């Protein structure tokens, strides 16, 4: 029997594990993959203490910190959470079962897929969802990035160091990335932004060759591309929470209060899967700490707060 089982190994999950260990709670962290969504980021420049670090390296440091407290990190997929009288039973893909007095859901998000004709057919044959992973295949080629957020800007900037030409294709009138990223895009000589435009179809033979646009660009509705990187946001990975009976918003975000409590006693949530106002690593890490504190109070009946 564990005191706490944390599901998810990103900013929120690792942070929760560190704080739970400091409360001397018997803790297990279970995750399908290490690192969460940030692990694919080539550069993280807004996490305090690091001027620039890759997402992979940053998450490695988080895990090293967690393991230094003796917390077990299990790579497996949780497929079921069953509420019992005074505990929860956690079932995993590898047919293992674990018991815990409290659960912290740090499930993160999953990438939103491009839903147009040809997108699924050409996935990994020109359609990609990770510039860090697949950008090297497009050295001296022409690529497109769909989206206008920070992730799209980061991808475009990374690709601009490899590709001959990078088009950002965005449905709105202005990019919504951070101003510092917007300035870098404007300064890049091989990045061009196509505004108020959507990709409505992908065409090709063995690999993609063209993106069909809903508005003309230079008089044409087809744009020749060697590859497309999709950065159109993400959706909360909350299906297993819904099955447990946790209340969600209409956007499938887990509803939590200031103590990171859900509507189910003993179930807490933190990070990008929740109805937070800002999806950033710093926020997720702080929520992980709050969730661990609240779980400690739930288990022991003792309050923890104030300055340390």
The total domain count is 2
**What's the CATH superfamily of the largest domain, by name?**
FAD/NAD(P)-binding domain
Low-confidence stretches: none
How much strand content do the residues show? 25-35%
Top CATH class of the largest domain: Alpha Beta
Task: Summarize the amount of helix as a percent range.
Answer: 10-25%
CATH-defined topology of the largest domain: FAD/NAD(P)-binding domain
Question: How would a crystallographer describe the biggest sheet?
Answer: 7 strands, mixed
Strand pairing plus helix content: what structural class? alpha/beta
Secondary-structure element order, N to C: EHEHEEEEEEHEHEHEEEEEEHEH
Shape, per Cα inertia axes: elongated
Total number of strands: 17
Give the integer mean of the pLDDT values: 95
Total helix count?
7
Q: What is the level-2 CATH architecture name of the largest domain? A: 3-Layer(bba) Sandwich
Would you write up a description of this structure?
- With 308 residues, the chain is α/β, with parallel strands linked by helices.
- It folds into two domains: 177 residues, FAD/NAD(P)-binding domain (3-Layer(bba) Sandwich); 104 residues, FAD/NAD(P)-binding domain (3-Layer(bba) Sandwich).
- 25% of the residues lie in helices and 28% in strands.
- It contains seven helices and 17 strands.
- The strands form four sheets. Strands 1, 2, 3, 4, 5, 6 and 17 form a seven-stranded mixed sheet that branches. A five-stranded parallel sheet has the order 8-15-9-10-11, with helices on one face. The protein has a three-stranded antiparallel sheet with strand order 12-13-14, with no helix packed on it.
- Strand 13 and strand 14 form a beta hairpin.
- The protein starts with a strand and ends in an 8-residue tail after the last helix.
């Amino acid at each position: 029997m564990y005191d706490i089982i944390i599901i998810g190994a990103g900013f929120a999950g690792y942070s929760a594990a560190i704080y739970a260990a400091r409360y001397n709670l018997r803790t297990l962290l279970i995750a399908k993959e290490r690192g969460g969504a940030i692990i694919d980021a080539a550069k993280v420049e807004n996490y305090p203490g690091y001027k620039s670090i890759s997402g992979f390296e940053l998450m490695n440091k988080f895990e090293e910190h967690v393991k230094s407290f003796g917390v077990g990190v299990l790579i497996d997929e949780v497929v079921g959470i069953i509420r019992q009288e005074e505990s929860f039973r956690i079932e995993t893909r590898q047919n293992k079962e674990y018991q815990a007095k409290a659960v912290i859901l740090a499930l993160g998000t999953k990438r939103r897929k491009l839903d147009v004709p040809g997108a699924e057919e050409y996935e990994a044959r020109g359609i990609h969802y990770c510039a860090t992973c697949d950008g090297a295949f497009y050295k001296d080629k022409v690529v497109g990035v769909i989206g206008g957020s920070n992730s799209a800007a980061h991808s475009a900037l990374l690709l601009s160091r490899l590709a001959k030409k990078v088009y950002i294709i965005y449905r709105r009138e202005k990019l919504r990335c951070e101003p510092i990223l917007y300035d870098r895009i404007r300064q890049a000589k091989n990045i061009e932004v196509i505004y108020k435009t959507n990709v409505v179809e992908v065409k090709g033979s063995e690999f993609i060759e063209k993106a069909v646009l809903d508005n003309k660009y230079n008089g044409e509705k087809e744009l020749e591309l060697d590859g497309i990187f999709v950065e159109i946001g993400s959706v909360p990975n909350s299906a297993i929470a819904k099955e447990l009976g946790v209340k969600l918003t209409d956007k499938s975000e887990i509803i939590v209060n200031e103590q990171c409590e859900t509507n189910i006693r003993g179930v807490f949530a933190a990070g990008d899967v929740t109805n937070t106002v800002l999806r950033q690593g710093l926020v997720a890490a702080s929520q992980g700490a709050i969730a661990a504190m609240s779980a400690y109070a739930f288990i022991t009946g003792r309050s923890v707060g104030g300055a340390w």
